[in-house]
Amino acid sequence: MAQTTLSQSATDITASYSTRSYLRDGLLIVSAALMAVTLYMVFMWVPTEQNLGVSQRIFYFHVPLGWIGMVSIMVVAVASFLHLITGKQKWDSLAYATAELGVIFASLILVTGSIWGKPVWGVWWTWDAKLTTTLILWFIYVGYLMVKAYAPKGSQGRRYASVVALIGAIDAPIIYMATVWWRTAHPDLNIGPLADSDSLDSKIALTFLVSMITFTVFYIFMLMERYSLKLTETALDELHQKITQ
User: Fold this and answer.
1) Which pLDDT does position 1 carry in this prediction?
2) pLDDT at 173
């Protein structure tokens, strides 16, 4: 019986991996090509901004990272909500995989922001509203992963983590609206429904758009990879429990 279960689980894992491999390979190729185009446009094609100089080029990395960091926490929250409603493990796995990527991108947001802020503001860090709410986002990601690691095993621990994700998602719109609601050193909104579409030079706007698409495609590729790995880990854990019973 154990051998039959082992064989069936191994077959399911292999089939699941094969059905996604072509899409993942395609996303990898597209994201690599887009990244090459983005790097060329950022460092060779787009003109240097007159006021900020060379330091402004980090804008093409910092803002897309910020976009992905906010999108990630929303994905974590939606997946967690679906897990609470349906109880299906796949949604919890998606939330966990997204949170792992989210904490990486949130860290990169803070690092690139500090690097950009030093020549512009003269300091590595200031308790600007947008910076502070982004730091809170980083703690939310870390808190979610800590709950997943140390909460009681099973459905109870997953529910605790889901609640943390749902509460943490409130921070995403606050980050976006920070420059509108508070006096902040950050420039006006560049993306989203409230952005001023005429605030950027045409070449800068095009480079920014390509960079946003590049990082979004790369993020989707990484999420698919981590989610697939998480599903495999979960299947192997369940198989181990069946065998040891």
Assistant:
1) 44
2) 87
In whole angstroms, how far apart are CA 92 and each of 6, 30, 61, 179? Answer: 23, 28, 29, 33
Per-position DSSP letters for 56-118, written without gaps between them: GGGHHHHHHHHHHHHHHHHHHHHHHHHHHHH--HHHHHHHHHHHHHHHHHHHHHHHHHHHHHH
Buried b (16+ CB within 10 A) or exposed e, 149-179: eeeeeeeebbbbbbebbeebbebbebbbbbb
What's the pLDDT at 99?
94
Decide: 62 and 117 in contact? Cβ < 8 Å: no
Q: How far is CA 192 from CA 34, 63, 67, 148, in A?
A: 22, 12, 10, 32
Tell me the two tokens of residue 87: 């109880």
From CA 216, how far away is CA 149, in angstroms rounded? 28
Which of the residues in the chain have pLDDT under 70?
1-20, 154, 185-200, 240-241, 245
pLDDT at 199: 63
As given in the structure block, the two tokens for residue 10 are 């191994």
